[in-house]
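Subject: 3D-(3,5/4)-trihydroxycyclohexane-1,2-dione acylhydrolase (Decyclizing)

B.,
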Amino acid sequence: MTQATIRLTTAQAIVQWLVNQFTEIEGQRVPLFPGVFGIFGHGNVSCLSEALEAVQDRLPTWRGQNEQSMALAATGFAKAQRRRQIMIAASSIGPGALNMVTAAGTAHANRLPLLLLAGDTFATRLPDPVLQQVEHFGNPTITVNDAFKSVTRYWDRIMHPAQILPSLPQATATMLDPGDCGPAFISLPQDIQEIAFEYPISFFEEKQWSIPRPRPDRHKLAQAVELLKTAKKPLLISGGGVRYSLAEDAVAAFAVKHGIPIVETIAGKGSLTHHHQAHAGPIGIIGSTSANTLAAEADVIVAIGTRLQDFTTGSWTVFSQTARFISINTARFDAVKHRAIAVVGDALETITEFDTLLGEWKADQQHMQHAQHLFAEWDKLLTKLQAPTNAPVPTYAQVVHAVNDAANENDTIITAAGGLPGEVCKGWRVKAPNTFDLEFGFSCMGYEIAAGWGHAMASKGPGGTGGTPIVMIGDGTYMMMNSDIYSSVLTGHKMIVVVCDNGGFAVINRLQQAKGVPGFNNLLVDCRVQQPNNPLHVDFVKHAESMGALARKCDSLAELTAALEWAKTTDRTTVLTITTDAHAWAPGDADWDVGVPEVSSRASVQAARKQQEEIRAKQRVGV
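Prediction pasted inline below.
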């Protein structure tokens, strides 16, 4: 029997396949690919856009202002949906495609799904060199799209229409695999997009996808149980994988039942509410004294869904040299780190089986009481740091508290780079699960407002929080990427943006001076400017208003509090700006290993080098 076929261009076939992929969220059947962020150019406007226009009622296309920011919006959407839906970012060739490399790196570092469709040069090479083509003299097969190989989990260049038949399912399976999850990139030469091919109709049948939940190896889990039962001061680290597995309740119940305090990584923060009885605070360089004290005392650490990044481990100085690790992770690469008992499996499935095997075993209750006391002391310190004072300029801690206090339970806080990550990770008291997005896997400046757009899309959809995204951003990062304020107004996706203006890149200035280098090229007053004593400051209110947003400048914490209440009543994205102190920071007591010159004539650098050598002497030896 002859197989039934349909004649479509490559671009049309890709789009038809995408609209027929589905998944399930909380019992509701929904599109796996709910939308496309797109900027069209000569590499995709005549073929891919033609295909997308025809299905815009089923697969809406949203126009971005910058290819990087629209791919970051897609990344924020994926995080908001806890990897259960995947947005697409489509670009033309050359600079349009390359603009998405940073966003791909962000998604890759954070283990988040993102489908990138980028135009490419001509497969025939007959018109070469075309506009925006970068030629490699010794290898004509290379285009700028090869740059994505280092920042994607799946990469393909379609050189024949039939190649999408195996490629699209493989790309999707990769993005939904909890162990391999990350961005997928498909390069589409202009002439390949236009070619018609007889595709089997069966290829376009509706398909329901689900995220696999691999169960752990019984032998490894038995080893983990045996080790944990020897623990006198166990500690549980909750990472982003706990949230993506929807394992928050199970992990919390496990901790309570077995008397194990929970500390959270940056990606894991939000798996517990702030005042949960087992919660002991965020761990690491931008963590809490309570969590870091427990980490130093711990003899057995159960790390769930974390890649143990240096900001979690204090560059491997926060744990004792003799501490043992049990690592539960869907990714083997992450599970085997640092001589851990590697339990490769889904967090929810694994913790459920772990609980059964542990039976009624429980750590000494004094250990949990000790953790609760440490956390209560930390909470008191936060309250002291966040209390209003008579200082003319508020601190980050005070501003964070004002925003936190005004936020509704289901509003999501979003930030990524600069001084705010430390202040928000330490000082934000989470009111409801899955309402905290601190992108610090890549610490991508420019993620914040773009991700706010993505969160706003996800918030009102299936599985969304229903709240309003609140973006906190420094003036330096705002200047780097802000055009999605306009995008959100244009498309009707409201967010609240709080701009903390501290006169430049304040936190990196702090690091610079801490390592013995005089303030240089970070704060505006230390830059090469026309008026060194009076550098030009941006009027963020006028800037935001020019993009259609509502905006207000606040000159005090009281004005900020009033403005936040007003912002909750507005009908569009609203921007609030407040001057903040560039030199006052919440304390942190974990070390960080960064390069310091081995030789310098500066006494301050010599002292910093000695301190750095002392930090390295404390590091655990491992891989």
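The domain at 218-377 is CATH 3.40.50.1220 (Rossmann fold).

T.
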